[in-house]
């Protein structure tokens, strides 16, 4: 199998695995919301935030360095492996001892004993994190996809068994640990074919890799902190219960957006990198990518905004009905995120990750200001602050990255998604009113979802066929060619 065939096969396996894993994760949430309280989801959100930030920091760029270094010998890899494992273990010990202080900060005693258990995830990741990079580098996408599907499925089984037997919040934590254990053991065992681990570690061997990855790590840390800042502040100012409601709403929206964007971005980056010195080519392709993403994400998020109560009722149950208004607000955030997310492809394709670092730094400042101010009011205002932030970042990203690197005029950029945007407004606003007031007096929520949902879909089809038929066909043909 040549490089092109491997890339196409990898895209197919990655796409399939991404869809399957997200569906399994949603099913896992459906199960757990029947057994766990909102407060418990909030506690898990706090622990997950700390764990994620730790992951980003503790990697110190080794994964990026391995991906970009052509030849690595066994001694170099073993040095990287043991260094990272030691870092992960030391951070685990430090955070476990810090758990009582973190629990005091959030006024949640349970964090003091739950966090050391959840953070075992960090130690388990030390076994296979670098080997995961090796599997990606050697393009073993089928094995990675199977690993992700199997571990996600096992995680659901563990969550179901423990939840049914009354383990409560432990069912969520332990099921996550089981998924991490399977993933990393899989990575470690398969990775031995490439690099057999040795009892060897040399600081001099890892210095070149540290220099390669440290800049990228700085960007990732700030980016992660910025994206999760709302979790940090809500947990402190509003408490675990409200944080649980907010995190469920945001997670639902993000899963739908990122499942689509992650697949398209994996294909988009090679396309943009292929001819990265031709700005006309980059402008044309980037507009096509945004157009394609908006054609999928705008209708999905419009549907989510209109039918938030119905979807939350079906997925999480009646006791989580207060998640629905936040889903409606954050679906607008999801729309803006879907067209802003691919901007990173431009900086990578042009080799200007330094601009990404500056952009992420500015984004974090804006995020801190908006979330801090909005936290003095209500959780819905915080959600709206996320929407406002994305609108501001839309303008900044265009001027700072898109126009600067590929000279794409603002009107051309807006034109790439304005058609479906106007159609979504034309359809979304009337249907939001229709569903809110239930003008056909349909009592059953499922029947409401079916009847109004079909009406919404038909309205989209009619307007797309009337206003965007030619454009839609061109875009679909382009993306069929690259065999998504």
Automatic annotation (TrEMBL):
Primary location: membrane
Subcellular location: Cell membrane
Alphabetized InterPro entries for the sequence: Poly_Biosynth_Transport
Pfam family, one: Polysacc_synt_3
Keywords from the named record: Cell membrane, Membrane, Transmembrane, Transmembrane helix
Transmembrane region(s): 12-31, 43-67, 79-103, 109-128, 149-173, 295-317, 323-348, 360-377, 383-405, 417-439, 445-467
Membrane topology note: Multi-pass membrane protein
GO CC, any one term: plasma membrane
NCBIfam families: PRK10459.1
Family the entry assigns: Belongs to the polysaccharide synthase family.
Protein name: Teichuronic acid biosynthesis protein TuaB
Taxonomic source organism: termite gut metagenome
């Amino acid at each position: 199998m040549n490089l092109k065939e491997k890339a196409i096969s990898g895209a197919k396996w990655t796409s399939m695995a991404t869809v399957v894993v997200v569906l399994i994760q949603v099913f896992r949430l459906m199960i757990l919301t029947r057994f766990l309280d909102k407060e418990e989801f909030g506690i898990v959100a706090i622990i997950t935030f700390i764990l994620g930030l730790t992951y980003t920091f503790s990697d110190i760029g080794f994964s990026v360095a391995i991906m970009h270094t052509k030849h690595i010998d066994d001694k170099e890899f073993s040095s990287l492996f043991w260094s990272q494992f030691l870092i992960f273990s030391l951070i685990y010990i430090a955070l476990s001892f810090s758990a009582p202080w973190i629990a005091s900060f959030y006024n949640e005693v349970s964090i003091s004993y739950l966090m050391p258990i959840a953070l075992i995830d960090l130690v388990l990741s030390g076994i296979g994190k670098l080997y995961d990079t090796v599997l990606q580098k050697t393009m073993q996408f089928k094995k990675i996809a199977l690993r992700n599907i199997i571990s996600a499925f096992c995680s659901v089984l563990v969550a179901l068994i423990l939840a049914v037997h009354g383990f409560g919040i432990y069912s969520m934590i332990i099921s996550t640990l089981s998924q991490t254990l399977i993933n990393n053991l899989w990575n470690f065992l398969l990775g031995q074919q490439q690099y057999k681990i040795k009892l060897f570690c040399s600081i001099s061997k890892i210095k070149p890799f540290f220099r390669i990855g440290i800049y990228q790590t700085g960007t990732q840390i700030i980016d992660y902190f910025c994206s999760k800042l709302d979790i940090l502040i809500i947990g402190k100012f509003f408490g675990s219960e409200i944080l649980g409601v907010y995190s469920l709403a945001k997670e639902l929206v993000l899963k739908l957006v990122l499942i689509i964007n992650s697949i398209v971005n994996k294909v988009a980056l090679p396309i943009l990198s292929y001819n990265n010195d031709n700005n006309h080519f980059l402008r044309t392709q980037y507009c096509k990518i945004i157009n394609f993403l908006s054609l999928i994400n705008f209708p999905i998020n419009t549907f989510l905004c209109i039918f938030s109560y119905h979807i939350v009722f079906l997925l999480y149950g009646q006791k989580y009905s207060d998640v629905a208004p936040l889903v409606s607000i954050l679906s607008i955030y999801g729309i803006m995120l879907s067209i802003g997310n691919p901007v990173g492809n431009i900086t990578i394709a042009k080799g200007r990750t330094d601009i990404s670092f500056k952009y992420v730094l500015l984004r974090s400042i804006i995020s801190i200001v908006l979330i801090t101010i909005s936290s003095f009011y209500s959780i819905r205002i915080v959600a709206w602050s996320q929407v406002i932030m994305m609108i501001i970042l839309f303008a900044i990203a265009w001027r700072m990255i898109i126009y600067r690197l590929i000279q794409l005029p603002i009107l051309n950029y807006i034109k790439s998604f304005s058609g479906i945007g106007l159609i979504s407004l034309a359809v979304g606003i009337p249907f939001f009113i229709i569903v809110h007031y239930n003008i056909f007096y349909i009592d059953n929520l499922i029947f409401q979802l079916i009847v109004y949902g079909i009406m919404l879909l038909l309205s989209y089809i009619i307007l797309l066929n009337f206003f965007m038929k030619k454009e839609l066909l061109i875009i679909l043909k382009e993306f069929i060619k690259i065999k998504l």
